[in-house]
Amino acid sequence: QVASFVVFGIMCMMIPQCRAFEAVIVICLFLGLCDGFFTTIMAPTAFELVGPMQASQAIGYLMGLMAVPMTAGTPIAGYFNDYFGNYYAAFYFAGVPPIIGGLVLSVVPLVHQRMLQKQRLDSGKDKMLTPDAVVNGELLPGSPASEAHM
User: Fold this and answer.
1) How many Cβ atoms sit within 10 Å of the Cβ of residue 45?
2) Which residue spans traverse the membrane (predicted)?
């Protein structure tokens, strides 16, 4: 998903550089592939981040947020055309957010890994100081561990 964001942004920025129709076709092919990669991985990512119960709501929010730049992009591109006399700036500015988003997303696993390491260190200290206590509602009814504590 990160790679598709970065490649999508680069391809957007390369559209003004095309001088032949065949080049536009190749760039549009890559744009479509990157869009397909993002769309197909969106649902599994939502399930992993928020769980199965809130995944449909998360996908809905994401689609709603994606609608804002898609709706506003056309008038902004027209404004750039009026100001600069061509659409080049619109394509360059359209490529920047996916590249920044991809770079930010590439850092997320590193931050997550650090948080897990810190959590492991903190949980190791906690286990030495306090016995295992089951918080009410932490276990599902009927599981063997919950019946052992009753």
Assistant:
1) 16
2) 23-47, 59-81, 87-111
pLDDT tens by residue, 131-148? 555 544 444 455 555 455
Dihedral sign, Cα of residue 47, residue 48, residue 52, residue 55: negative
- Which residue is listed with tokens 């391809």? 11
**CA–CA dist 26, 32 (Å, integer):** 10
Let me know: does 12 contact 91? Beta carbons within 8 Å. Answer: yes
Residue pointed to by tokens 């561990």: 145
User: 128: phi > 0 → left, psi -120 to 50 → alpha, else beta; which?
Assistant: alpha
How far, in Å, are 68, 124, 125 from residue 121 at the CA level? Answer: 42, 5, 7
Report the distance separating Cα 119 and Cα 150, nearest Å.
Answer: 29
Q: Which two tokens stand for residue 1?
A: 């998903």
In this structure, the number of other CB atoms found within 10 A of the CB of residue 11 comes to 21
Residue whose pair of structure tokens reads 């920047």 in the numeric block: 96
Cα 33 from Cα 79, distance rounded (Å): 29
Give residue-wise pLDDT tens across range 60-108.
988 898 888 889 989 999 999 999 999 999 999 999 999 998 898 888 8
